[in-house]
Amino acid sequence: MLYKGSCICKRWHLELRLAMRLEELNPRVCDCNYCGANPASIISTPNMSVDFVGSGVSIEQNGDRLANFYHCKGCKALLAVGRDINGQLRGAVNANLLQDMNKLGPPIQIQPRLLSANEKLERWNQLWGLLSGLEKTRQ
Asked: Which residues of 45-70 are buried (b: 16+ CB within 10 A; e: fewer)?
C-alpha cells in the first residue's frame, strides 16, 4: 500500500510503502523531554520503506546520541528518526505528516529512555524500516 504526505511548509514530501493498511498500525508517542518539545507520532514496520523528496534538513541527536532526528529546515517539523543499521538508513516516520493519518489506530505511549543502549539498538533493528532521501540533503 502506498501513502503520501508532506511537512507543513511542503518543502518535504514523502511516499510510505507498507505491506499492511494504516488502520493496522498504532503510532508511538515517546514521553522523553526531546519528544515533548518536538511532538510527533511515529510509525514503523520492518518491511516499510519511506522515500523523502525535498531539500534542507537539520539533523539533531538526543540523550545517548544513538539516533538522528531529521527536521525540515523550513517549518522545523520532525520528518523521521533513524540511524545507520548494517549499512542502511533505517528508521520511523512521523505519522503526523501523512495525508491519511486519521486512519491510524490509537497512539501508544513508549519510554525508550528506560532501555539500555543495546536494548534500543536491538529493538530498532527489529522495528524500523528503510528511509531514503534524507542523508544527502543537509543544505
From this structure: eeebebebebeebeeeebeeeebbbb
Is residue 79 within 8 A of residue 98, CB to CB? The reply is no
> For the domain that residue 13 is a member of, what is the CATH number?
2.170.150.70
Residue 137's pLDDT band (boundaries 50, 70, 90)? low
- Mean model confidence pLDDT for the chain: 92
pTM of the model: 0.92
Map grid coordinates 526531546 to a residue. Answer: 34
Which three cell numbers, joined as nine digits, stand for 117? 543502549
pLDDT grade for 139, boundaries at 50, 70 and 90: very low
Domain boundaries, position 39: 2-132
On whether residue 137 sits in a domain, the answer given is: no
Q: Considering the domain boundaries, does residue 73 fall inside one?
A: yes
